[in-house]
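FAQ: What does a ligand-bound record look like?

Like this one, built around FE2/S2 (inorganic) cluster:
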Amino acid sequence: MASGDTIRFLLNGETVEHRPGAAHETLLDFLRLNRRLTGTKEGCAEGDCGACTVLIGRLSRGELVYETVNACIRFLASVHGCHVVTIEHLRGADGGPHPVQQAMVAHHGAQCGFCTPGIVMSLYGLLMQNPAPTDIDIDRALQGNLCRCTGYAPIARAAKAAGAEMTKDDPLASERAAVTEALAGMQTDETLSVETPEGTIHIPANADGLADILADNPDATIVAGATDVGLWVTKFMRDISPVVFIGHLDDLKMIEETGDAITFGAGVSYTDAAPVLARRIPALTELWDRIGGTQIRNMGTIGGNIANGSPIGDTPPPFIALGAELTLRKGGDRRTIPLESFFIDYGKQDRSPGEFVESITVPVPAEGTHLAAYKISKRFDEDISALLGAFALALAGDGTVEDIRIAFGGMAATPKRASSVEDALRGKPWTEASVMAALSAFETDFTPISDMRASADYRMRSAKNLLRRLWHETEGTPVRIDRGVA
Amino acid sequence: MTIEKRRIAGSPEWQARISPHDSALKHVSGLAEYTDDIVSPEGTLHAYLGLAERAHARITAMDLDAVRAASGVVGVLTASDIPGANDVSSTGAHDEPVFAETEVLFHGMPVFAVIATTRDAARRAARLARIEYEDLPADLTVEAARASGGDLVTEPLTLERGKVEAALASAPRRLSGSMQIGGQDHFYLEGQISLAIPGEDDDVTVFASTQHPSEIQHIVGHVLGVPSNAVTVNVRRMGGGFGGKETQGNLFAAVAAVAAKRFNRAVKIRPDRDDDMIATGKRHDFRADYEVGFDDQGRIHALDAVFAARCGFAADLSGPVTDRALFHADNCYFLPAVRLKSEPLRTHTVSNTAFRGFGGPQGMIGGERVIEEIAYALGLDPLEVRKRNLYGGEGRNLTPYHQTVTDNIALRIIEELEETADYQARRKAVLDFNTKSPVLKRGIALTPVKFGISFTATWFNQAGALLHIYRDGSIHLNHGGTEMGQGLNIKVAQVVAAEFGVPLDTIKITATSTGKVPNTSATAASSGSDLNGMAAANAADQIKDRLIDFAIETYDVPRDQIAFEEGEVRVGNQRFVFADFVEQAYQARIQLSAAGFYKTPDISWDRKAGKGSPFYYFAYGAAVSEVEIDTLTGEYVVRRVDILHDVGSSLNPAIDLGQVEGGFIQGMGWLTTEELVWDDKGRLRTHAPSTYKIPVSSDRPREFNVTLAEWSKNTRPTIRRSKAVGEPPFMLAISVLEALSMAVASVADYSICPRLDAPATPERILMAVERLQAEQALK
Ligand SMILES: Cc1cc2nc3c(=O)[nH]c(=O)nc-3n(C[C@H](O)[C@H](O)[C@H](O)COP(=O)(O)OP(=O)(O)OC[C@H]3O[C@@H](n4cnc5c(N)ncnc54)[C@H](O)[C@@H]3O)c2cc1C
Ligand code: FES
Ligand code: FES
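The answer part, i.e. the structure of the complex:
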């Protein structure tokens, strides 16, 4: 184990060796307070407004990938070995404003300007991958950026115009080789442990290193994407030391596909999982695109979404409906359990101290299975589910329900199966009458609560109606609002 | 860089006025400096507020020892540490303490501040306070406040004209109802912030994110117990204001200033977003109760309505806000007999404040609800009912406040939009779609806006500007307005540049400062460019007159042969580079500096009588919105919006278009997803962007066509005949609520008015759908 005083990373054009002031020091505070890089703004300190958006370049199996992240909830120590790119580093090939910046000026994309650096970074992140974005692509890239002034239309116009101006000699593109080399030089195969003035940081080099650290520090806070843990610090000022960072571990980021299942390492981000899901389980694509915003999807992990045990996490219901299994590891020991049994009660999961989530195996629905995941939230994008219903329906040849698995989020203290509803439907003809007859079983399965997202009454009514929606959908009746851009 | 002009249709003259925001390049580069970005003096301390955790209670004990002992803490301030008045109320009502003394009046009321070496240390320490309370009964809603006697925060207003009872009684039809109209958090992206730097004697300099530097100056003086001349307030720009920084910055500036003087160090205060949302006021939520008499053609005979507002614990701006609600309940419609009453109720919630439209939107949406009720009662297209009730024609131009509408262009706007948006055909298509689609339903609505321009407190309608021309010909421009993204500075600079015929980059726009232009009004009520543009033009005229006199004297040419154009001064047959001519004038000892002034003429308002001409003119507009809802979940999408809006003769069409687009989306947020939820303990549950949902990019209408009515000229001699644009477009979004309402109404064959309250969240839509389905089944 390497103990050191400092973490190392690239910040724009410079190599930084830095001893974090605290285990919980955020990247945003470091940029603004320590480096006076004040172009990156704080609008909310909770990952929801995007004013703090920066790009992080990291080596993923040797390849340099840049992704947008929220600097406000990203812990500084987690950028060890990465390239942090802020608005100050953006420039065009000629050293002047970057095409994205020029287009934002030309199209009047900024009014008060406070959201603007974050928006520029998000658009830059988008255009690096997709220089000809559609309105839908732009909306998706901006899900995590709030602008209170412009109403977004001029920003979307700017995005389209800028795409055409993106060039191969874009500075980040021309720096690639040098950055890759510099980052490669920072990678080690040893755990790095740093004592800060406030707390201890562990940065393992691989999953075995993680297992060792947890064996020694069973109560350490595991931080993957920090999209939950970040808020424990910025909103609740919780002490999280000692911290072990796992978001960078390649061996927790593997995705294995077999004929009938996909196994995701716990550290697979939403973004990394998206293309595989789109190919193998396309019914989850819309839901997937609605988890957080782009920055959150770049950071947040499937393992974190499950491990946090939240009753309103978006991945458990569909995964439970599909019959997913979870593999947990402690030291060298592994055990595999049905995902639904991981959630014991509110705030209580089947995980012992020192144990971590290693992977999740999700069966691919069989041919003919109708899978649907319906997320209901106050705002369509970048909102937490008021409720989420996931349905896996298999019909027999005679039109009766051979099997149906239904799981809901937001309806109970944990993600939960609707077993009574399932029972009421299994073996019945898949007709509107059967569906209507099964609705009352929802009241056996769930007693939802009222909160700021929705009332208990609404939750119950719309949960029932989601089963009706499923039926309509299998009948071919249009039930999904067309959100395309004319 | 070529500036995008194509989208903004218009004559070459309009095109020529398009200029990007003066800070645009800085905005996109991260170089625009906001208050938190200012290099602060060495040893700057940070303040953080401790907030009360009761809605209404007596403080029985306060133990701050742990706070004082926390690492990094330099000191603690409570009410007794305030050298002057413990009061930040903007209207002199003395009902808004900096820190609660013995009684807590809302959940989130500041009780103390902790000052520490870092913001993090101050914030952590603030949580260590031990405060004990004895709970008192709390009135959290309009209904609760009424039930406990209806204590008002300020004098209510009545607007009355005609014989209301008689007209109601004789009207062929009559109906009554009520509507809940939700509030709105400003969600300016840059939160509240102040930095105070102590100086010699009593002096203190404050850098604040505020729309009203003069008020901050006044309040800081008042709280410190020093005269205003000891306090200088500067603001370069805000990261959004929307009314939320008209008075709500007072508290933060006061705390920073008191701490700065106390510890003789610079002190910065910046609340976390959640605390900002909890501790600062919002748009007032209202309950409107109405009774309307009308005939079978849908013509209104009489309207009697009460607008009750949840004002919170203090008056703040609730008086003028509730007044403005009444001023806009008529919108574009003539009300033959009318009585409108405001009820500004005191509640144990945060004191509500200014927000774009300033009560106008709440009043207008109440009025539009009445139109909708009539339409559903008669089975008419609401647009038809609107047209039949428009101001216009003999004896039909008098408002409920007895001002005559003389610049009415509502009908032209409506008819043009109806045509260009293809309203009639699309309405048919919507009706047709609904007969064929069992689950998804559509709605379409066209609603107009007429918004009165001027502060209703007449004395606020004044402005000052300060202009210096230096010997090198460069111009220093300062005025009393503040820049919050609305493009005020560029508009004023364009005015000055045109006066002197110099390129825009000759002009340096400088931070608003109470030391340069005194006694300014808030940059609010959409008045920014009307007032400050005129004041700057006045300053420019003074200097120009001196330069012309100098030219006449020196070169012996008649006045009409002197012109300022293309960076030159033409004097008879001679042409001088502007800077050279300025140098000549300097040598001749011509004063090259002027203070400009402007006050809006021809306005008056007698509040007691409820009569006058409070508005200099009206701005108009209209929007058509088309939506689709899911009757199983209440989810929806705004499919298409078409807007035609009147900005008079635009000073900068690109900036104005941005205000219209942005204002509309903000209004749409107010009426759709932006829901403020307080629990039964008076705690705000939606105090962060995770729970309070302003529109994101994908909420913008899937098709969005915005046009400025280029043919419109202000009938009043405003600056270049332009019109104010900040607030009016906000209310165009009422069309979204009404389109949603129509989609809901489809489930009961459009025979029942859905009476959709605002905001129409998916939950509200689903509940309304199920209610109408049930009512229809009973029929
Ligand atoms: C703005 C915003 C929007 C969001 N939107 C959504 C949304 O739409 N839908 C949704 O479901 N969620 C949403 N979230 C919540 C969040 O993104 C997810 O819960 C996320 O998946 C957590 O993953 P993470 O890697 O960031 O976890 P972290 O924050 O790093 O960790 C979360 C918890 O899991 C533990 N943990 C992480 N990895 C492991 C592991 N391998 N083994 C054991 N324990 C582990 C941590 O110790 C911690 O307790 C949102 C969050 C934010 C800030
Ligand atoms: S500051 Fe809002 S997302 Fe980071
Ligand atoms: S420009 Fe003001 S928030 Fe986007």
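Follow-up question: can I read anything off the structure? Yes, for example: The two ends of chain A are 57 Å apart (CA to CA).
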